[in-house]
Structures are given as structure tokens and as C-alpha cells.
Amino acid sequence: MSGKFIVFEGVEGAGKTTQIELTAAWLQNQIDGDRAVAITREPGGTKIGRQIRQLLLDDPDECISYRTELLLYAADRAQHVEAKIKPHLELGDIVLCDRFTDSTIAYQGYGRGFDRDEIDRVNQLATGGLQSDLTFWLDLDVTLGLERVLLRGKLDRMERATIDFHQRVRQGYQELANVYPDRIVRLDANRSPAAIQMEIQSKLMVMKGIVTAVPIGET
Ligand code: TMP
């Protein structure tokens, strides 16, 4: 596959959406005209996925078992990989994705307490082994993030989980970043969107196969 798969991760309210939009706008001017930048997200990147997203997030009263929750995220991902991510990568596009497999490790693994081997097997089944080329982890204090989310409106089913749960999720991301330093880039999300975006751009500039090289003398 000739495209690039860039994922944005983080706890609630970390600012992923803003950074994905800024990154897409910047990338449009950096890449060849025959490649596209595709923005997508999990859960909810496909038509089926949008229905799964509703099941997962919209009904705070329905008691979804943790096992059902894990499998619904995986079902959303399986559809997303096959119907959207892989086709874009095969065309050589750059896919910017809001959350991927690390979310399942952080939320269902560290947050809900599923065993890591079990999560890895489910992720493998859903993705067929597809991994991000690079993941930006927007790291923010969970209370700050949840305050930002509250200002936007009502909390969804996951956002209503306890502070302890969200702390474990953040801890999960920290441990993943320690184990995969080449794939996961930690960004301090407690800064202005512009400062965070500058760091993202500088990482992407040095990543092979993203920004079109300008031949010397053609600036
Ligand atoms: P968001 O798209 O607004 O970030 O919300 C998605 C929610 O779903 C968020 O609380 C994180 C959660 N989630 C999981 O628990 N596991 C997963 O595998 C994914 C992709 C998301």
C-alpha cells in the first residue's frame, strides 16, 4: 500500500479534531496533486460505523456489557479498514484517522481491564494487521479534558465514566508511548492549537513519503 496512515489519539477533550483539521489543511498544500488527504474517525468512519457509534455512545442508560463494547468497537474497525482506510491507502492517499487500535488498548484494556492478549487478538482480527505509520498522542490532564468536553455540551456514555477510568486510559497511552517510541509521538496538549500544530508539521516534514521534496534550486 503506497499511502500513509496517520492516527490521532488521546483522552476526551485533548483537541484531536482541531489538530486533524489543521493538519489536513496544511497537508493539502504539501503533497502532489494526485494524492488526497482523507479525514476519518473511529467509531463512525463508515455508514455501518455511524450506527455502531450511536449504539456505543448515544444511549447513556443502556447497560452495554464491556465484552459487547469491545466487540462493537472491533466491528466498527473491521468495516472501516476494509471499506475506507485500505482503499484510500491503495490509492496512495494520506489518511488522517481520529483514533485506532491504541484506543482499544487504552480504553478497553487499561480502562475496562481486558487482558492485553485478548485485546491484541481482537485488534488483529479487525485490522488484518494494519498499523498506523505514525500516531500523534495528544496528552492532556483528564480533568482538564473533561472540563473542555462539558463546555461543549452533554457527556456521552464513555465520557461519563469515572475519573479513575479516564486516568487509567491516560496511563495506558503513556505505557504504549514508552513501548513504541518510533510509532507514537507524545504531544503536550496543554498548549495553544498553533503550537501543537507546529510540532505535528515538523514531525511530518521529516517523515518519508509525506511531504513532496522540492528539488534544490526550485524554491
Ligand atoms: P470520540 O470520537 O469523540 O473521541 O469518542 C469516541 C469514544 O469512544 C471515546 O470515549 C473513546 C472511545 N473508544 C473506545 O473506548 N475504544 C475504541 O476502540 C475507540 C476507537 C474509541
Number of helices: 8
Share of helix, binned: 40-55%
Strand segment tally: 5
CATH superfamily: P-loop containing nucleotide triphosphate hydrolases
* Quaternary structure type: single chain
Distance between the termini: 30 Å
Order of helices and strands: EHEHHEHHEHHEH
Going across the major beta sheet, what is the strand order? Answer: 2-3-1-4-5
The number of domains: 1
User: Rough shape?
Assistant: globular
CATH second-level architecture: 3-Layer(aba) Sandwich
Q: What average pLDDT do the residues reach? A: 94
Classify the beta-strand content into a percent band: 5-15%
- CATH C-level class is Alpha Beta
Largest sheet: 5 strands, parallel
Written description of the protein model:
This protein has 219 residues and is of the alpha/beta class. It has one domain: Rossmann fold. The chain is built from eight helices and five strands; from the N terminus they run E-H-E-H-H-E-H-H-E-H-H-E-H. The chain has a five-stranded parallel beta sheet with strand order 2-3-1-4-5, sandwiched between helices. Helix 3 packs parallel to helix 5, helix 4 runs antiparallel to helix 5 and helix 4 crosses helix 7. The longest helix is centred in the middle third of the chain and has 25 residues. Bound molecules: thymidine-5'-phosphate. Thymidine-5'-phosphate (TMP) binds next to helix 4. The site of thymidine-5'-phosphate (TMP) has 12 residues, from helix 4.
